[in-house]
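Figure 3 (text version): structure tokens given as input.
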């Protein structure tokens, strides 16, 4: 038995054809029938008198969008009392002002007291206006809305309950949006309350229970409860330690402290949670979210249906592992413990991980084989991505060598003094290197990225969250297990976390309180999506690897084909592979040009002609669609330029500031190219493939950055560090340095301590 407006009714839901509620947020996109409950705080204005028309219009727009997608939408709304209060107050003020003017004969009116307005009268006056407003708004989207007013007896009486059910089903069948509200004009009088000044408020918890009841009765897939708070918190919202609960499970009520209710209504969060849990038990998924925040209210409903992390999601299935928020906190605490270790201890962890990569080679390759077999059977990966996914004995050996390089070079990374200044007598300032904090590295199809990035994070004392592609799930799992085994050597196992939950990348990019830097490793589309989704978190990386090789008139015949072959064919899927080959015009129809073309044909490289190159040919290869193309395969573009200056201009216009190369024996021309090309890596007579942290002697890299601040090019340990300032004084105060003070600034540069070069 459950009470609704103080009248008990049986709460056994009708049998549901669609089964249980959704387990994960990502499944909400499949919701067909949806109830949206609008609390009084969402519908009413801040002055508690009248409706928030802008918010209401935005909600109607979102509901209409979902309705036009083929979903069945229902709205349970508050607002009649507030709308009626606005109308009645206006009438009373007008009436009083007229009477007072007639009796006093004066132009100036005295202060007029507004009598207490009875809530049922407000509801009666406001209900028709509220519905007329909904009808006008939905008409803009060619959608019809219908009003349904219910009372307690409609649920208490079995026949009325079935009639209501039939009416709702018929409206949904005709593609009409039902607008449902309690018939507050005829309900029993409530207890006196001061929620709305001058009004005895109809308890909002009625609409919470009503929405839950309707959702279960109508076999609804999703109930969205909009209020004036972001969702459910583990302590009262607004308190210092309050954290939004992403997923709430039945049985978690004991761990939650409920705060005060919203500014209007009596339901409060406790009533919403009880209603949500009852609906969840009946097979309806529930999300409680904020419908008043100006930054999100315009898309809160559609975001929820798309499965984005908005509000609190109620789920009956509790995952075995920690949530991503908990993993972020674990990585933060583990990273700080890692940074507190001695450099030798961090190096020992990395050496241990390098040993595990070779010792556990068979287990790693077996897990990788499973990933490859699943990817091939499903046919979801292109050949270049399959190559990235594949691990081998030689790859593991190279990884181990790279990790040992990182360990050897990490002895003097964290806590290194890079500047010392004597501010005044006995007042010394130091600038020292420190970890950035918590890194989020998102990578696709490259399990070898996991130990590389982990080693760099360990060496730099950073906590690490890893999000790998599902195509490498088995490989990532064992590599992460080995990483944590190595970290356990000094009790910092939690510093590196692998996100295994069904977390969307876009949701991870919103965790600005947990993550300090995002590093994407994958396709240009992935990088662009992350750069777009990141909210308040810096992103390090490059969106594209459009690398150029310019062949000058003074190029060596022997060097040209070797460098071009290596740049394009050695690993065409890499971001540092050649994509556009620039040829000086004077080299056309020369033996050198013929050798280049012959070599590319032998290597089965598909050639696309740039506009100028095509104009020189009678029968040219297919003309390139765009000069800003990253092929990632055995394809490249050939374009003609008239000079090194034009080559530089072409690179600046169509390149991605990644890696660009000149092949020439003319030192003056080479230096011009090196100094004028504005890319992260610029080479002379060397393959583009040297643009790599391992080949640069960094041991490994977290990625190649084309940004212009903090780090650029292959990013190793140095790029994962920032600095802090340490000031050591002895009773120093700023007032001592004033015009009439006793001390003066010295600002003397002091020698740096000797670095450990072993």
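Below: residues designed for each position.
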């Amino acid at each position: 038995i459950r009470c609704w407006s103080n009248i008990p009714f049986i709460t056994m839901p009708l049998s549901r054809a669609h089964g249980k509620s959704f387990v994960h947020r990502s499944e909400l996109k499949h919701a067909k029938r949806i109830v949206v409950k609008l609390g009084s705080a969402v519908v009413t204005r801040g002055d508690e008198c009248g409706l928030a028309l802008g918010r209401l219009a935005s909600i109607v727009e979102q509901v209409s969008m979902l309705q036009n997608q083929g979903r069945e939408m229902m709205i349970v709304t508050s607002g009649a009392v507030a709308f009626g209060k606005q109308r009645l107050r206006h009438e009373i003020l007008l009436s009083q002002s007229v009477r007072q003017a007639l009796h006093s004969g004066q132009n100036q009116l005295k202060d007029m007291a507004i009598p207490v307005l009875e809530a049922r009268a407000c509801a009666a006056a406001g209900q028709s206006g509220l519905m007329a407003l909904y009808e006008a708004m939905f008409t803009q989207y060619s959608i019809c809305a219908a009003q349904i007013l219910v009372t307690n007896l409609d649920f208490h009486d079995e026949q009325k309950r079935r009639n209501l059910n039939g009416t709702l089903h018929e409206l949904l069948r005709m593609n009409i949006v039902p607008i449902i509200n309690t018939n507050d004009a005829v309900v029993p009088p409530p207890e006196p309350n001061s929620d709305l000044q001058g009004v005895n408020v109809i308890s909002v918890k009625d609409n919470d229970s009503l929405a839950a009841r309707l959702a279960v009765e109508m076999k609804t897939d999703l109930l969205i409860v909009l209020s004036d708070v972001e969702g459910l918190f583990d302590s009262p919202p607004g308190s210092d330690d309050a954290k939004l609960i992403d997923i709430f499970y039945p049985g978690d009520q004991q761990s939650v402290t409920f705060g005060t209710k919203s500014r209007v209504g009596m339901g409060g969060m406790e009533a919403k949670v009880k209603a949500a849990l009852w609906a969840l038990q009946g097979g309806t998924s529930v999300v409680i979210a904020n419908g008043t925040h100006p930054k999100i209210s315009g898309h809160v409903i559609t975001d929820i249906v798309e499965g984005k992390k908005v509000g609190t999601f109620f789920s009956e299935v509790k995952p075995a592992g920690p949530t991503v928020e908990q993993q972020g906190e674990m990585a933060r605490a583990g990273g700080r413990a890692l940074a507190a270790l001695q450099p030798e201890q961090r190096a020992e962890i990395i050496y241990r991980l390098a040993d595990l990569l070779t010792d556990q080679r068979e287990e790693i390759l077996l897990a990788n084989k499973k990933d490859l077999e699943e990817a091939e059977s499903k046919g979801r990966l292109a050949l270049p991505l399959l190559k990235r996914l594949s691990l081998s004995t030689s790859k593991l050996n190279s990884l181990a060598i790279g990790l040992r390089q990182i360990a050897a070079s990490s002895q003097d990374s964290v806590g290194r003094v890079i500047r010392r200044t004597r501010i005044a007598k006995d007042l010394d300032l130091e600038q020292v290197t420190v970890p950035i904090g918590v890194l989020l590295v998102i990578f696709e199809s490259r399990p070898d990225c996991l130990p590389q990035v982990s080693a760099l994070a360990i060496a730099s004392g950073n906590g690490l969250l890893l999000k790998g592609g599902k195509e490498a799930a088995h490989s990532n799992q064992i590599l992460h297990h080995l990483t944590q085994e190595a970290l356990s050597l000094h009790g910092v196992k939690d510093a590196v976390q692998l996100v295994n939950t069904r977390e969307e990348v876009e949701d991870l990019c919103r965790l600005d309180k947990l993550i300090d830097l995002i590093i994407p490793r994958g396709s240009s589309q992935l990088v662009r999506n992350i750069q777009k989704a990141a909210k308040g978190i810096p992103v390090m990386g490059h969106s594209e690897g459009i690398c150029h090789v310019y062949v000058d008139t003074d190029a060596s015949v022997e060097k040209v084909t070797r460098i071009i072959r290596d740049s394009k064919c050695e690993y065409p899927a890499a971001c540092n592979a050649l994509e556009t080959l620039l040829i000086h015009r004077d080299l056309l129809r020369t033996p050198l040009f013929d050798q280049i073309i012959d070599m590319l044909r032998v290597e089965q490289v598909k050639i696309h002609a740039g506009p100028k190159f095509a104009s020189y040919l009678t029968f040219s290869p297919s003309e390139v669609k765009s000069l800003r193309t990253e092929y990632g395969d055995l394809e490249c573009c050939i374009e003609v330029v008239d000079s090194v200056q034009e080559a530089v201009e072409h690179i600046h216009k169509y390149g991605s500031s990644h890696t660009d190369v000149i092949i020439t024996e003319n030192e003056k021309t080479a230096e011009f190219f090196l100094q004028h090309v504005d890319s992260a890596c610029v080479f002379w007579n060397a393959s583009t493939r040297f643009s790599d942290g391992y080949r640069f002697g960094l041991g490994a890299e977290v990625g190649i950055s084309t940004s212009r601040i903090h780090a650029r090019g292959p990013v190793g340990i140095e790029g994962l560090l920032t600095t802090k300032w340490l000031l050591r004084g002895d009773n120093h105060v700023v007032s001592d340095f004033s015009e009439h003070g006793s001390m003066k600034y010295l600002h003397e540069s002091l020698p740096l301590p000797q670095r450990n070069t072993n």
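Residues 324-417+428-533 form a domain with the Aldehyde Dehydrogenase; Chain A, domain 1 fold (CATH 3.40.605.10).
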